[in-house]
Structure formats: C-alpha cells, structure tokens
Design goal:
GO molecular function, one term: hydrolase activity
InterPro entries: DUF402 (IPR007295), FomD-like_sf (IPR035930), Ntdp-like (IPR050212)
Order of helices and strands: EEEEEEEEEEEHHH
Strand order of the largest sheet: 1-2-3-6-7-8-10
Number of domains: 1
Number of strands: 11
CATH architecture: Beta Barrel
CATH class: Mainly Beta
Strand content: 35-45%
Keywords: Hydrolase
Protein name: DUF402 domain-containing protein
CATH topology: FomD barrel-like fold
Structural class: alpha+beta
Organism: Nocardioides silvaticus
Helix content: 10-25%
Length: about 170
C-alpha cells in the first residue's frame, strides 16, 4: 500500500458477529508496524451504535503478528491511547480484519491507565466458547500492552505524534 491510500477496518466479535467498521487512510510503515489514519469526521459503526468522530486518531497494526490494535488519539478524545486485544490483525487487500477479544488497555488524557472489560471477557469465554489458547493469547497480550503503556515503551512513548501530525488535528 502507498501513503494516502484508502483502507477499511472490519472488526468482528468471536463467531463472526459484526463489530466496528470504519474507513481511513494508510499512512506508512515503521519498525512498529503499519500506521493508519482516521481524521476528524470519520464515521464509525457497529450494530446498535454509530458516530462521527470529533477527534483525530492513528492506529498501528503491530509488526510481527501481535494480538492487538493500538489507537492513539488527539486531545479531543477521552482516551489518549485505546488498545483493543484482538486476534492477530490481517490484511485482506486494503481491508484490515481482526476479531475483538473484549479486553482493552486504556490510557486517559489525565494519564490514568487501566484494563477495561474484564467482566465482558469472562462472560464471553463461556457464552461464546473462546478456546483456551485464545483466552491465554488475549490475557498475555493485555498484560504486555498494559506494562508497555505504563512504562512508556515505544510505540507508547509519543511515537504516534509523528503519525498524528500527518492528519488534521482538532485543537481543544
């Protein structure tokens, strides 16, 4: 893909149930992975919810097949960093696909960092029959991402600012 090329993100839940879908642009690649841009005005939709983003964000698709997608947002968004634990994301042409596994690592604008949706993850393991290896993968990924965000390890060290500057950023 080339910088500026339109891309689509299609997330599902376990069992192929639809989840978030949205369009953006391919920004480029570095040692952390492929970077995708989502300017203010991006339309996000999932069953039962849709909205137009009032914030600008970038997502890194991790190099090496890590089991998460990390979003970095401008100051307008409630969360500075929002990392979905997923199956390893894969490209299908210009469409990025991954299965959302409930757990999220979130860093709010005030610096608070936490793991979200642990209750949902526990419920869905039973309700949707997550295989043990998927449960282990999601838990390990969440623990590693939580530690990296808390310690400010790249790309959670401000690396995303370079990519955010490629998009129009909304000022407070």
């Amino acid at each position: 893909m080339t910088p500026g090329e339109p891309i689509r993100v299609v997330m599902t839940k376990w069992g192929g149930r639809p989840h978030w879908e949205y369009d953006g642009v391919f920004l480029g690649t570095d040692q952390h992975g492929d970077w995708l841009g989502f300017p203010r005005g991006t339309f996000y939709s999932r069953p039962g919810l849709e909205f137009v983003g009032e914030f600008t964000g970038v997502v890194v698709v991790p190099a090496g097949g890590a089991a998460h997608l990390a979003a970095f947002n401008d100051r307008v968004a409630k969360a500075a960093i929002y990392v979905d634990m997923t199956t390893p994301p894969t490209w299908d042409g210009t469409t990025l696909r991954a299965v959302d596994l409930d757990l999220d690592v979130i860093k709010l604008q005030d610096g608070t960092v936490y793991v979200d949706d642990e209750d949902e993850f526990a419920e869905h393991q039973v309700a949707f029959g997550y295989p043990p290896e998927v449960v282990t993968m999601a838990e390990r990924s969440a623990a590693a991402v939580l530690a990296a965000v808390q310690q400010g390890v790249a790309p959670y060290d401000g690396t995303a600012e370079t990519w955010l500057r490629l998009l129009p950023v909304v000022e407070e």
